[in-house]
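User: Hey, quick favor. My workstation is busy. Could you predict this chain's structure for me?
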Amino acid sequence: MNCKKILIISPAFAPCTLVGAARMTSLVDYLIKKNYKVTVVCYGRWMFKGNLWTRKIPSGAKIIEISETKKIRFSLFMGVISELIHEKYDVCITSMGPFYGQLFMWFISALFNLPYILDYRDLWFEDGDMKKNVHDLLVRGIEKLSIKHSSAVVFVTEGNLEIMKSRVKKYSSKMYTIYNGCENMEGFQNVRKQQEGYCICCVGKYLYYDKNAAVALLESINCLRKQGVNIRLFHIGEESDSAADILREYNLDTDCYCFLGEKSYEDSMSILSGMDAAVIIYRHETGLGTKVFDYIGLNKPIIYVGKVPSELSRFITQFENYIIDDSVESLTDKLGDFVSNNVIKLNREVENFYTRDCQNKEYEVLIDDVIQRGKSK
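Assistant: No problem, here it is.
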């Protein structure tokens, strides 16, 4: 029996630890274990400087790394063309964000008779951002062209799927949602808590999306500490996103917040597993981000401070224990209730649907369907 051959275009890929590398790295690892042959075209360290580069490369994957160049888009295009000249593939998946693959996949598909799947981690553009100039009209045209000639279009949230369906109704039947999901968390489930008191943790961006929301949470923690409640926020992230200066600016108790710096994914999850609850600061109407799935996988109560209503706020309400607010007074009351009742679980039972394995299974079904449709043409 011949192995199905898949070509994946993913600008960021293991060992890169950026969020953009996680989805395709996980999918490639899953597919290889299912006996698919997978080749990945990606950029190297020169493209994503300053990254930790600790993510494990899936064993058995063929990696084609684009050499350093100023012609970023063209070099990716030529890397894909060169591989397709020498090897025949059953399907191509292009990960978007950046959206370089979308610029040329319609052409490559016609040239090599290759079905392809567009994987949108984010939307290329928001409708409200577009202007009636030549560049933006060209972007719209390329997007529509690439969707028209694709075999499937995948989104990571229902919100983005609905936006795109309304934008190009004609092709809505080929659109699907496959969530990001979380890694296997079994090894982190029984990590002993290292800190005293009620500990909440934010992994990733804290001030970046909404400084006011971030400050509101710190002020509510400060209020509780003045009442004698032992609660503290820990933050794993980049130095540029540290909230240490906020404590001085707003005259807050320095014990409200502890910045832990940048950590590998494994170290971050190990630390988070020993915390009582997890924090998300977010300010977009659509999108879920990726950290919410890690929080779900570790079964941590979610404290969401940001835009309401939003796709993320609605998504979180399916669980049992969460806080959704951005008012200092209300946050103080709700956090106080969490501490008083020792709320340390999101649900009574761990939710398994949002694991990457479950989402990759959905992807496998779609890939096989696209390949079968391509063979029947």
